[in-house]
Amino acid sequence: MKSGKIMSAVLSGCLAFSLLLAPAASAAESAQTDSNTEIINEIMDYIESYNVEGVDKDTLIRGAIDGMIYTLNDPYSMYLNSDEAAEFQHQLELEYVGIGFSLARNGTEVYIEEITPRSPAEQAGLKRGDVLLKINGTAIADLEADPFSAAPGSKLTLTVNRNGAAKSVNVTLKSMVTTSVTGKIVGQKIAYIALSGFTQNADKEFSAMLDKMRAAGMKSLVLDLRNNGGGYIDVAKNITSKFMESGIMMYTSDKSGALTPEIIKGGSKIGVPVVVLTNENSASASEALTGALRDNKIATIVGTRTYGKARIQNLVPISNGGELKLTTLKYLTPNKEDFNQIGLKPDIEVQSKTAQLITALQIAGMTNITASGDSHILNINGSPFAGNVGLLKQGDKVYASARVLATLVESEVAWDAKNKKVLVTNGAGSISSFALASKEALSQNDETYVELNAFKKKFPALTWSYDAALKQLKLSVK
After folding, report:
1. Long-range contacts made by residues 450-456, C-beta under 8 angstroms, separation at least 24?
2. Is 104 in contact with 113 (CB distance < 8 Å)?
3. Residue 461: which residues within 8 A CB-CB, separation 6 or more?
4. φ, ψ for residue 90 (rounded to 5)?
5. Does residue 88 sit in helix, strand or coil?
6. What is the pLDDT of residues 338-391, one digit of tens each?
7. What's the Cα-to-Cα distance from 160 to each of 102, 126, 130, 138, 474, rounded to whole Å?
8. How far apart are alpha carbons 225 and 435 in whole angstroms?
9. Given phi > 0 = left and psi -120 to 50 = alpha, else beta, which region is 108?
């Protein structure tokens, strides 16, 4: 199997929806429906009775339903049978079977980037930065199926590489729920809150976390919506009300084309500078919140362009226990931007996961930053985050990610393909170059790295140290 099959993924479907009761039909509509139903039943009877290959009636019915939905040319509308509907609800509430870690890739390596506290992964002794080699004796690249899709209670043996040594760990799959809201203070009273999904209780959890951050002296806020695939739109509206007293969150439009404003009333001002982090997996309800905070000039958006799902589905219960997820509304940002299949462009575009976080913290007011770790893990001012510093070591030379280094000194980085040089442009427009030919720079796995002594000569604000025993790097700016 390709190792991508076991990488952590965003909530499938990228959701924003509300509940809807089935509409009542008029007498004329009922008569027409009865006539149409007779035709469908007639054709189904002929197929069932005479088709040479034979066919299952339930399969015919499901095919007819899927065919109707297919003609809508809408990737978000779908029919869910009772089992699929139950699984959908699990996904929406961030419930899954697993061991409680997220995976990332560096070149050909698949490694553990984050571990959920008190999870089977943590209890088994797995650590951030462990590189997955084998699962149940099969090399990662050779797996034919996702081993983490097994039933709760299934046991796995993971072989990992930790600091150059192979280690086998036994772990048991468990039914788990991803916490929708996490948060912490990251130095200089900057609050960091990650919102992973708009579950039914996410608004209450967000409100409680916001109160906790305020009690800790919050002076600014970084709201991380990266990889948040969406959820309940009314929950997104409730969270929006924690940022603004009143105003337009978004506009909706049904098949008539008329625009209806979704208005925030009785909210509260956030009262501190806000930075929102987005990426290509920030979708649907995440985009509604992002657009509201951007257009109402409450937040600066940092990261990459969002997914681009400006459509809302209603969930209609069906008499057989299934559900119809049907697109019923378009939505636009307060500035009336329809970004469907386009995405929202950030105010400040930053590609690297680590550079995105550092940029957001800088905008939020962080002036003293220490980024430490290696090619797999990242700590900012001693606090763990997803990402890495891009450590490479060749002989006595130590290199770090060009994007991370440039971001730390608040500069822009570019690649000069013709001359094979890394170009770093500071705020005054002065350009410093680091060439592959002189070994001041390296290129590996489509990433560029700069030798740290060479970088410090041109950017003396950076200090660095390398711990040979831990094989970790520390980068600091003040």
Report:
1. 450/399, 450/400, 450/402, 450/405, 450/422, 450/424, 451/397, 451/398, 451/399, 452/398, 452/399, 452/400, 452/405, 453/397, 455/400, 455/405, 455/424
2. yes
3. 409, 477, 478
4. -60, -45
5. helix
6. 999 999 999 999 999 999 999 999 999 999 999 999 999 999 999 999 999 999
7. 15, 9, 6, 12, 25
8. 36
9. alpha
What letter would DSSP give residue 119? S
For the chain, the distance separating the N- and C-terminal CA atoms, rounded to the nearest angstrom, is 46
Count how many residues are written for the chain.
478
Distance of CA 71 to the CA centre of its chain: 30
Instruction: Please answer whether residues 156 and 171 qualify as being in contact, where contact means their C-beta atoms are separated by less than 8 angstroms.
Output: yes
CB atoms near residue 234 (< 10 Å): 17
Cα–chain center distance at 257: 31
Q: Which element (helix H / strand E) includes 383?
A: strand 383-385
For the stretch 122-144, pLDDT in tens is 999 999 999 999 999 999 989 88
In contact, 184 and 220? CB cutoff 8 Å:
no
Task: Check: pTM over 0.90? Answer yes or no.
Answer: no
To which residue do tokens 């606090």 refer? 383
Q: What is the mean pLDDT of the chain?
A: 91
Q: Which H/E stretch holds residue 46?
A: helix 27-50
Q: What angle do CA 52, 58, 62 make, to 5 degrees?
A: 105
Distance between CA 218 and CA 24 in Å, rounded?
51
* Distance of alpha carbon 52 from the chain centroid: 48
Q: In sequence order, what are the residues at sequence separation of 6 or more whose Cβ sits closer than 8 angstroms to the Cβ of residue 455?
A: 400, 405, 424, 434, 462
Identity of residue 211: D
